Amino acid sequence: MEYILKNGIVYDPTNKIAGEKKDIMIKDGKIVGNVSSDAQVLDVTDKLVMAAGVDVHAHIAGPKLCVGRLYRPEDERRGVVAKTDITRAETGFSIPSCPATGYRYSRMGYGTVTEAAVPPLEAKHTHEEIMAIPNIDVSPLLLFGNNWFVLQYVKDGNLEDLAAFVAAWLKIAKCYGMKVVNPCGSEAWGWGMNVHGIDDPAPHWDVTGRDVVRALTQVNEMLGLPHSMHVHPNDLGHPGNYKTTIDTMDCVSDIEKNPSVIRDQTLHCTHLQFHSYGGTSWRDANSGAEPVADYINKHKHVTCDIGQITFDETTTMTADAPMEYDLYKLSGLKWANKDIELETAAGLIPIIYSPKAPVNTLQWAIGLELFLMINDPWQVVLTTDSPNAGPFIRYPRIISWLMSSDRRTEMIENGEVHKWASKRTSLPTLDRVYDWNDIATVTRSAPAKILGFENRGHLGVGANADVAVYDLEPENFDATKAANAAVVEDVLGRALYTLKDGEIVVKDGKIAKVVPSRHLWTNVQGYEQQEKQVLENIMPMFNRYYTVKFENYKVHDHYIDPSIEFKIDASK
Amino acid sequence: MKTITLNLKKFSSIALEFDELKPDDIYTWSKEDFEKYQVPVGNTRFPLSNYFDIEVEGDAEGPEDVKMILNGDMGRVKYIGCGMTAGEVIVNGDADLHAGAEMQGGSLKINGNAESYVGREMRGGNIEVMGNVREYCGTSYIGEWRGMSGGVIRVHGNAGKQLADCMSGGEIYVDGSCDILAGIHMTKGYIEIGGDVTRWPGGQMKNGNIVINGKLSSLLEGFDPEGVVENPEIEGKQLTGKYIKYNGDIGVNGKGTLWLNAEKNRDLL
Q: Would you state the torsion angle of the CA atoms of residues A475, A477, A478, A482, taken in this order, to the nearest 10 degrees?
């Protein structure tokens, strides 16, 4: 099928197109330079056209989601939509059902989403859920930061074997890249403890978060994985944690990037908002956004996503189990904990982010400060760490805040948010606004580049034909007006068209077609011998401590159909 | 005043759902509107007139002018009066799950027994059940920690398990006996049980009052006896007789109060 998207106003930062009236031509699922006269014309005259969105960090599939759905039936009844001829029934608000996850991303014009935390033991289940999510390709990141084998290799300083282990485990779990969550902290949680800061060792291991992040980042660059190390630093949510965050970013500053990759960074620091707090306790907490943003502005080896608070009743879920316990003690609501044997631990609690609450408002303001203080939009990605800071369906609302300083001022001055926004942060003094090019950067181009996708997040010839068209004429619309914030939110929440691999999956804000999501995974070549040796070496420990047999641990090919394999030649 | 009478003519073993037939939504409906209406049955819909003879008399300016009478065995009709804010609903027979759930105002009277979840998450209004209610009367939705916050439920028969789970306001009166864990997780409100209680009233209660006029078989360890009080006045209600006063549940640092009839519970003195 061939299409021409005619006369749209195109924003494609990767190809330096900022609001040009242009036709986008599509053939066989790719963007092309020419199409035949048979091509179907979609008249999108003066409408906003961008590549489909790319999400660098969300929790959409896996055991945490399943536990969340089981223990939050009260969330499942929110967001109930009846089935249609095309779609299945939808349930859930912060933890939507699998089909709803796909439909909702698709309606917002997104095409690729990263599932940010997959424990290897639960990778099978994660892929099963991805199979039930339609319309978005999913790149799962595998958890390594508290894995016993990793800790042992780090302790021994054995980077060669660690690299082989990572290569083998990405194949076994069919995952796209590496993720570290509270390195050593979730292991300490096995003993009812946590680590404090990057230099506090895990009990019984004598290995610190710094050791783990450095070793895995070195391995990531040795292998030349498409995505960089993806880190959730220690001390999430603790006042004064901005120092740990800067230390974490700085601890890899000397590590050389692999020359074969398209990304610029060696470390992606996720949900930075939760890691940019000043003060010593919640009584005197204030914003630590300025030093963090300042560090990022001066260092190109780091990128980040924000994890913006959206003021919703949502669910927090993370492999940072000790932090979830702390949060549970603060909130007094219900708590679920999940131990993942030799690999990690996860926790979940419901949470209500209220604009009337001082701490929640501070968190909201810090997120926006980071967006506005980090100068280069290529180093920032728009996320809510969905569902931790808010569900992903709120992205359009965050865009409306970023595009209108008037709207932000209105919220602060009208008392829509607590006065801590102005007393404890410098948000009121920041009058920067994002334009459509910046928005396209932080929602498409930058995340695609950070993840190492060559064919996503842009509209150049050869790119995947993942395109979003919104029912808004950017040349006749002033997004900086506070009164237009609601329009921005509404329009970006229901794409006029979303195309996935050249097929129209959303039309007029409604799902027009359901296509299976593809599993994106990285296949490292060139370490086969070492991988074999490493597997032989660790098998006694595996057999002794895991509750499953190794034969049942591996994700078999039928779990990842359809998939896209990223073959990486580690020798390059 | 508009009187809407639905006389059951065909019983469906698959439940009908009545949450769209609350006075707020139907006060303008004519007989023809009801006959046109397709009621949810299981995973599909059928005409309401398949199941009921429908009579409509008079006019209503608003939901408060509506009197809805359901005659027959409504034991497979769910969500009767669910979410209503005004008006009167009378069931001359049994009612199925979720009767009066999320009710905000008006009144619901069931002249029979009711299934589970009567008055779930109720915020206002009155519910009267002449027979028994099953489990989770006046509770929260499953998983939800915010339960009934207002209104009054009167049960003339017995109540099942976990009466008023997570209650944060309102009043519940049960004339008959009550099964385990009445007032579990409650944070505020008033529960009065006329008959006997099996076990564990007030588990993890943070605040509020539970009065038991019958015999309690098993008290939780988290309740500290304070002494015997004669003719106590509780939340403006004057009780007569001697009551043993307990404070708890201390397991969750609770400040709730449990009042047991001293005569019937001499073994605890």
A: -160
